[in-house]
Structures are given as C-alpha cells and as structure tokens.
C-alpha cells in the first residue's frame, strides 16, 4: 500500500544511495517542500476535544493493552516498573515494527506527538498543519538496558540526518524525534545521540537533526493514539510500504 507523497513499497531504505534517489528526492521536494516548514501553534488546525475515531486496544502482535491509562473508556495503569518513551523516525508503520521486536517491550502503538492540534486525524497530520510527527509510543521494562537496545535500533534503522523527511516521505510529520518521560531517560537519549553523531562523523555522514525533548515540552505535550487501521500495520500487511532498514552506520551504545 503506497503512501501519498511517497514512492512505492520497496522494502529498502531510500537514503542508502543518494546518487540513485537524488532525482526522486528533488521531485518530492518540488511537490511537498512546503510541508518542511513547521506550522506555528497559532496557525495549526484546531482539532477537537476527543478522539473522532474508535481506538483499538489489544496489540495484534504482543497481545497487550496499547491504551493503558489513556483509554477514554476504561483507563488502566501500565504494569508496575514499566516506562514510556516516544520514538519518531518517518513512517510510523516501520518504527513500530522495529520497536515491538526489542526484548523488554511490553506494548507499542502508532500515533501523533510533538504538535499542537488536539486529537488529530491521519489526514490532518499528513497535511503538516498540526505540527505533529508520526510517532510510536513504547512501553517497556528493563530500564536503561532496554532503552539502549531501543535507541540502537532507532538510530540504525532510519536516517536521523535528514530534517523533516525520511527517504521520499517529505514534511514535518516525518521528522525524526525522541520524546522522553523522565529525566533519566533524557540523559540516556542525549548521550546516545552524541555517541551516534561520532559514528556518523567517522562515516562521513551528516549531522543529526532529531528533535530531542521531554514529551511535556514537545508541542502541546500529548501523545495521541492513531486510528485502529494504523496499528501494527506491517503485521497486517507484511509487504506494505516501509522505508526503514539499516542506514549503513552501526550504533554502539
């Protein structure tokens, strides 16, 4: 299922060979370059005070609760000892599939974060008029060990140097971001970014553009769960569009 404003599903990471994809990048910038400008909070779509769509609760792959205390119908606490972090690196379908395979991950969900529009829809986020990025919420146990494993996969499986785009996906909704929910997580995230930048420098690659913030300081500070059809999309459609894959620079945390 190709995404609007994207190339067809290829199963590879478009950023691997820029000499090949350069003309395609130029075309996508011509068509969607205006979406790379972050909308001002005053100009963002107004949104609404509740979800305009029903939410899926059970994780298709892990069988766990995706909503926890955020359920508008039956809020439940996350299991004791678990932590929450938000990862964004382009299309949330691929980032979610990467995250749910990491040992120690209790549940994941695709959603929207970092912007201003309350309870946005997929179409609104795609317009780049909400300020949100396509994001994945990860609930995990195992503390720093699991977090480092997640960050290793996060840095390696997308290109964090391309601001407001991932491959042929162009716009602020595809920006790279990590939003943490505790100061301890923030220290690990910032340290991992510094170490990965060193690896990128040694490989002759660019500068990390990933937005690194506490979730509370990212846009309106809220993560919104996406529509049911967006959840675990690549488990439902194994050959569906995904431009994630090893970017050529190993991450050692």
Automatic annotation (TrEMBL):
Keywords associated with the record: Oxidoreductase
Keyword Heme annotated: no
Active site location: 91
GO terms for cellular component: cytoplasm
Reactions mediated catalytically: L-methionyl-[protein] + [thioredoxin]-disulfide + H2O = L-methionyl-(S)-S-oxide-[protein] + [thioredoxin]-dithiol; [thioredoxin]-disulfide + L-methionine + H2O = L-methionine (S)-S-oxide + [thioredoxin]-dithiol
Gene3D superfamilies: Peptide methionine sulphoxide reductase MsrA
Keyword check for Calcium: no
Enzyme Commission number(s) from the entry: 1.8.4.11
SUPFAM superfamilies per the UniProt record, alphabetical: Peptide methionine sulfoxide reductase
GO aspect biological process, one term: cellular response to oxidative stress
Ranges of residues in domain Peptide methionine sulphoxide reductase MsrA: 84-243
GO molecular function terms attached to this record: L-methionine:thioredoxin-disulfide S-oxidoreductase activity; peptide-methionine (S)-S-oxide reductase activity
Known role: Has an important function as a repair enzyme for proteins that have been inactivated by oxidation. Catalyzes the reversible oxidation-reduction of methionine sulfoxide in proteins to methionine.
Family: Belongs to the MsrA Met sulfoxide reductase family.
The name this protein goes by in its record: Peptide methionine sulfoxide reductase MsrA
């Amino acid at each position: 299922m190709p995404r609007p404003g994207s190339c067809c599903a290829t199963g590879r990471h478009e950023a691997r060979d820029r000499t090949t994809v350069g003309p395609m990048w130029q075309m996508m910038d011509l068509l969607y370059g205006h979406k790379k400008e972050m909308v001002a909070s005053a100009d963002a779509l107004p949104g609404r005070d509740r979800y305009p769509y029903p939410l899926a609760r059970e994780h298709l792959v892990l069988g766990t609760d995706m909503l926890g205390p955020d359920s508008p119908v039956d809020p439940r606490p996350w299991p004791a000892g678990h932590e929450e972090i938000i990862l964004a690196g382009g299309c949330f379908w691929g980032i979610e599939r990467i995250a749910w395979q990491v040992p120690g991950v209790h549940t994941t969900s695709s959603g929207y974060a970092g912007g201003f529009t309350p309870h946005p829809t997929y179409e609104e986020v795609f317009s780049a008029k909400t300020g949100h990025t396509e994001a994945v919420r990860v609930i995990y146990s195992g503390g720093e060990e699991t977090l480092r494993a997640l960050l290793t996969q996060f840095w390696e499986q997308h290109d964090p140097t391309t601001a407001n785009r991932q491959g042929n996906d162009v716009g602020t909704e595809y920006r790279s971001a990590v939003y943490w929910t505790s100061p301890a997580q923030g220290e690990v995230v910032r340290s991992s970014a510094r170490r990965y930048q060193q690896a990128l420098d040694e490989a002759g690659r660019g500068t990390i553009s990933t937005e690194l913030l506490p979730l509370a300081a990212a846009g309106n500070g809220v993560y919104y769960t996406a529509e049911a059809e967006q959840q675990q999309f690549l488990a439902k459609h194994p050959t569906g569009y995904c431009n994630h894959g090893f970017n050529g620079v190993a991450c050692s945390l």
